[in-house]
Structure formats: C-alpha cells, structure tokens
Amino acid sequence: MTLWAFLGLESACANADAVDNPEKNVPKAVLGGTLGVAVIYIVSTNMIFGIVPANELVNSNAPFGLAFASMFNGVAGKI
C-alpha cells in the first residue's frame, strides 16, 4: 500500500512543470487528494462495519465482496 501511495505522490510532483503556479497548486492538490482518499477509506470501512456482522468480517479476506453479497443476495459478491 505504501508503494502505491508513493508512486501516486511521485506522479503528482513529476507533472508540476505543466501546472500554473506549481509552488502553490501542487501541494494543495496532493494534500486534497490524500485527504479525499482518507475520507473515502474511513467512510467505506465504517459502512462495511455496519453491514457485515463482526464475526463474519473477522474470517473474511474480501470484506467489500462480503458486504456486496450481504446487500445484493450474493450475486454482486461473486463478481
């Protein structure tokens, strides 16, 4: 996970020369993207905790699939 985060950060900074006012805009974009991803991760994790019982979640190696299977009668969980 850290590798993908680093690659995304490196990619954002590599294109700084194509951005207007990069000293101001690149840090804002990196911080905004990081905060946005953190919010999505926290919200989706809390939603899974609300949908799937804890005893099933502990034994699952695919919690998102388990949540979709719980919501859509198993059809979406197999996809």
Could you please describe the fold and organization of this structure?
The radius of gyration is 18 Å and the shape is elongated. 72% of the residues lie in helices and 0% in strands. The protein is mainly α. The protein has a domain at 24-78. The protein starts with a helix and ends in an 8-residue tail after the last helix. The longest helix has 30 residues, at 22-51. Keywords: Cell membrane, Membrane, Transmembrane, Transmembrane helix. Its main location: membrane. It comes from human gut metagenome.
Sum this structure up briefly:
The protein has helices at residues 2-14, 22-51, 54-58, 63-71. It is mostly helical.
List keywords for this structure.
79 residues, mainly alpha, elongated
Using the CA coordinates, give the radius of gyration: 18 Å
Compute the number of helices: 4
Structural class: mainly alpha
Task: Estimate what percentage of residues fall within beta strands.
Answer: under 5%
What's the count of strands? 0
Order of helices and strands: HHHH
Average pLDDT works out at 81
Low-confidence region ranges = none
State the end-to-end distance.
Answer: 23 Å
User: Roughly what percent helix?
Assistant: over 70%
Oligomeric nature of the chains:
single chain
Q: For the report, how would you describe the main beta sheet? A: none
From the spread of the alpha carbons, the general shape counts as: elongated
